[in-house]
Amino acid sequence: MTVKKFNLPDVGEGLTEAEVVAWKVKPGDTVAINDVLCEIETAKSLVELPSPFAGTVTELLVEEGITVEVGTAIIAVSDNQPGDAAPVTQAPTAAPAVEAPLYGKLPVDTDSGENGPAGGPLVGSGPKADAVKRRARKRPAGTGEPTTVAENAEGTVQDHQAVLAAQAAQVPMPQRPTSARAAVAPVSQSPVSQSPVTQSPVTQASEVTAPEGGAPGVSAPGVSTPQTAASRGAAISGTISGLVNKVLAKPPVRKFARDLGIDLADVVATGQRGEVTREDLVSYQAQRDAELDQAESFWGASKKPQDQRIERVPVKGVRKATAKAMVESAFTAPHVSIFVDVDASRTMEFVKRLKVSRDFEGIKISPLLILAKAVIWAAARNPSVNATWVDNADGNGGAEIQVKHFMNLGIAAATPRGLMVPNIKDAQDLSLKELALALNDLATKARAGKTQPAEMQGGSLTVTNIGALGIDTGTPIINPGEVAIIAFGTIKQKPWVLDGEVIPRWITTLGGSFDHRVVDGDLSARFMADVAAILEEPALLLD
C-alpha cells in the first residue's frame, strides 16, 4: 500500500498561506481524481481543492480552522483499501506515484499588470481551470447593438431567449461544459456591496434606496422538470439564472417570503433546480432571529472583570488582506475627496421605465446601473481618472502614470467573509442591458463566495454603493492600483429649488476620492460634474 500526501498548493499568484475551512472527506472515504477534498479560504476567495489522485483517505493532517503555509501536507491518501491487496478502481488517468505536485498558477487577467485590491495579486481558484467564468463576447463586425449571449467552453453560443423557450417546452437539451457568464447576484436590496469606506464597515453593493420598494421578484417559469432529467434541468436552470437572474421559487414560497419580509435574492437556494424552498426561508428566518437574539445577550455580565468580557478575533483571510490594502492605500496615495449633490429624478424615471421594458424583462435594474454607465462615460472625457501610478523599480524615485484605454469597472461588495472588489472586464464595450446582467452576475457570485481571483485583478476605477443602507455619502479609500473611487449615496426625496420654485425631487450625493499625485482638483471636479450630468439627464448617454 502506497500512501501519498497532498500538499497545500499555490492556487494563485503570490499565495503564501490559507485556512482549511471545511473538510469534505473523512478517513476511510474513497476518492477519485478531482473529487473535492476540502474548502480553503485564501486572501479573498473560498476555494474547493480537488484530489490529484484516487484512493482511500487515511488521515487528515490539518484540522478545520487552522491556517497553514503553502507546501504543507494536509491529507494522506493510500492507493488501495486498507487491508486489501488489490488497488481500488481509479479514474482513467493514473495517480502519480510520487508526492502530489503543487498546482499550477491560476490564470490572471493579462490586460493589465496591476495588482488586486490587496495591493498584490489576490489568490484562490476553483477545482478546474475551466471553472473560471468568462464574460460573454459580443458585437460581430458591422452589426448593430449586440445580443446578449452565453458562450460555452467550445466557443458556441446560445441566445438566452432560446434557452427559456426550450425549457418552457421541456425540450431535452444536451448538457455541455459552459463558461457562460453565470449570473452574478442581483444588484438590488441585498447585503452585497461595500466599498472600503472609512465611515462604516458595512455597506452594500446592491440597489440604492429607491422611491418604490424595489422591483418585484421575477416569477419562475411555470415548468416542472422530470426527475429523470435532473442533471439536464439543473444545467438549463443554471444557464437561465445566469443570463436573466431569475430567482426561482414556487408561488406559495413567494407569498411566504412576502409575509416574512424576506427578499428571495438574499436566500441560499437548495432546491433541485436551484429554486428557493420553504425550508430555505425557514432556515433564513431562524438565522435572522438568532442574530437578533445575540444582540440581546451581547453585553457580558457586569459581575465579571472587564478583561474577561473581551472577545479576541484573529485577523486573517479577507479581513487581513483588506486591512493591508487599506493601510497601503491610505498612507501611500494622497487622498483628496469632493462631494456633489445631484437631482437624480430623471434617473429614477428612467429606471422605472427600464423595469417595465420587455427588453429588460427578468433583469434586476437599479440606479447603480445608470451610475456605472455615467462613470464609464465620464472617464472617457477625463482619461487620467482611469489610470495607475507606478513607482519605478530602479530605486531612483522615478515613477510613471499608466492611463488605461479600457474600463475594468470595480464594484465594492460586502460579503459574509468581508470586503471584495471584483471588476467587470472591458465594461466600456457593454450595452446597457449587458452591463445590467454583468452587475447582477457580479453581486450574485460575490455573495455566494464564488468570485475568482482574476475577477478582482486589474481594476481601473471603483464604485461603491453606500446608499443601500440609507447612507448619504462617505469618504471612500481608493482601491490599490487605481486613482479614483466613487461613493453612491442614498436617493431621497428632498426639497429642491427648480426654476425658482421649491419642489420635492429625488436627490443623491456623490462622494469621490482621488489620488492627488495623478488627479488634480480641477480634473476631479470635471469628472464628478460629468458623472452628475448623466444622473441628472440620462439621455446624454445617447450622444
Describe the structure.
With 543 residues, this protein is an alpha+beta fold. 24% of the residues lie in helices and 20% in strands. It contains nine helices and 21 strands. The chain has helices spanning 160-168, 230-244, 251-260, 278-296, 317-332, 345-355, 367-381, 432-448, 521-536, and strands spanning 3-7, 17-23, 30-31, 36-41, 46-50, 55-60, 67-69, 73-78, 149-151, 157-159, 335-343, 387-391, 399-403, 409-411, 413-415, 418-420, 423-424, 461-464, 484-488, 492-498, 501-515. The strands form six sheets. Strands 11, 14, 17, 18, 19, 20 and 21 form a seven-stranded mixed β-sheet that branches. Strands 1-8-6-3 form a four-stranded antiparallel β-sheet, with no helix packed on it. Strand 12 and strand 13 (399-403) form a beta hairpin. Helix 1 (160-168) packs across helix 2 (230-244) and helix 7 (367-381) packs across helix 8. It is globular and about 85 Å long.
What keywords describe this structure?
single chain, 543 residues, alpha+beta, seven-stranded mixed sheet
